[in-house]
Prior knowledge:
Layout: H1 2-11, E1 20-24, E2 30-31, H2 50-66, H3 69-94, H4 98-106, E3 113-117, H5 124-146, E4 153-158, H6 163-173, E5 178-185, E6 188-191, E7 198-202, H7 204-214, H8 220-223, E8 226-230, H9 242-249, E9 254-257, H10 268-290, E10 299-303, H11 332-351, E11 355-360, E12 362-364, H12 380-394, H13 400-413, E13 415-417, E14 423-424, E15 426-428, H14 429-440, E16 449-452, E17 458-459, H15 460-471, E18 476-478, H16 480-497, H17 501-514, H18 529-532, H19 543-556, H20 566-587, H21 596-606, E19 607-608, E20 613-614
Amino acid sequence: MRDVVASQAEAGNADPGRFIERVNLETGEVEQGPIEPERLLVSKHRDYHMVDFQARRFMSRVVGKTQDEELARDKMREVRDRGYRLAERLGKMVRKDPEKVRQRLFGLKQRAYYFRFKRTPHTAEEIRTTVTRLREEAAAAFAPAKKESGPALRVLLTGGTGFVGKEILWQAARDPEIAEVVVLIRPKTVRDRKTREVLEVHSPARRGADLLRHLWLEKPEETAKFRFVAGDIEQPRLGLGAEELAALGTTITHVIHCAASVAFDDPYEDSFRANVLGTLNALSFSLELQHAPGSPFVAHLGIETSYIHGRQVKALAREDEIVFPRNFYNNYYELTKAMGSIETERFMLDKELRVVQLCPAIVIGEARTGNNRGDTKVVNAPVNVFGRARQARRDQQGGLIERSKSSMLARMACIFPGDPSAQLNLIPVDRVVNGIIAALKRPQAVVERVHLATDHRVTSEQIQRTVQEEVGVKVRLAEPTLHRNVTLPILTRVLRRFGQDRMAHALERLGTIFGGYSEWGQPIHEVGNDVRVLGLAPERPDASLAFRMLCRHNRFVQEFGKIRDADEISRREKVWRALIEDLERHWGGRVSTMPAPAFQRALTERLDLERFERKAEEV
Length: 619
């Protein structure tokens, strides 16, 4: 109990200085004083000077022509050095501070410090000893659990109602080695939209039953595997009572901590509460279970993100280390997930908790079908905006002026901040959960960090081409820096003047989400532990093909985000899955490889799009 209370007190301190220190570049000494969270984001260190913008365009062109990012960086260093020398000479000529001349004329800033994560107090030898002991103990403790009669794995899951959590339930239902999944879930209060009056409260049991129904898990042998209990990751011991804790202590073999905030535009305090405080509570809970009398075996699986490495553009983002990125973090989501990863390592080294860190890239729908169970966030959002813009242009009514206005607004919505060479690491949700389920069965995964990412990334240019083929929209790629600081403010101002507040807000959010992920020089995440440690198939998903299925799913199943009812989404995705399987039999391969015209012809032959039902002759 002491560890739980102490950890809770520590977690309440959201000061970044708990994790990060500022180091003087000249002396190498740690500088004292508070560290403001905003100083840890790349947005705070950009000048947005016109010369800076032109330099980025120049670097982008070099990359586009040579496909050599290191050459572009070398050229940029040359340009910066010349700028510094010229500013020095100009400063002497006009008797001004050269630093002010650099900033005013060229947008050049020179920091006298850098940030780094605080070093562990453990020596390299101590770390090796602890890691070796945890691996050996995990293997020894796991062996008896596997010898029990029948399925041996009993899992407690947080975040079961989320995108990845739903896929975990789907795969767990079909896995004969998983005997039970206890899902932590909060009651849901349903309010009147206008009056905010409480209409009803859905219990965890009711929410769980609805969740399983939406996942098409209604057979007794499927539903019997799941139990839904009230809890809260922001509370000590996850908000569970003593009786429930005692029961779990003698049965649970794994804790999968999947709950997190994935809002890239959340303020620091909100992200910290969800991604650090929640992680710390889950770690403390797992530690208590590991030491509970009669505990069969406990390993803590933390679901993090490969973007804990931030803007690591000069070196490979490695699986076996985490360093503060010299190019900072894109948002507070990345920053606080990195802090959560540090807490996980601390629990492993200080308290010898068995942990596995699983780090997905940008998670999208299933590779074969694109099914995402109603998710409309992250990559789904721009595709839906583009699709609605296309529909608005197609359905425009009124006179010439009204039609011209609608056409102009639709074209404005189809501007996307993206360098053609920028690479996004999109990973289908089924591959991610394949890795999570595999980690349950492999004690050798304990102490490892695994990037659940792909080595077949997709570029902004490929995304642009696929959207045109699948959605019928010509998306214009805009230089991200110029778009963020000039084009987007103008676009949103015009949209609001025409009463398009919703579209303006959507474009602002897209700029916030993708502003840092669509520039050239994106981090390259090391992969290998997914195959070496978890035993996954060595052929990783092709992000460009997965994105194509995302477009098809969002266009026909979700109707670009208009279909929101969970029951209807579930019904449609079941029809869609059966349709894709049928098309694969006729095509002789994955539907994602079908050209857009052939796919759309086959679709209209087999599916009544108005009712979203299979046509009678095909049933």
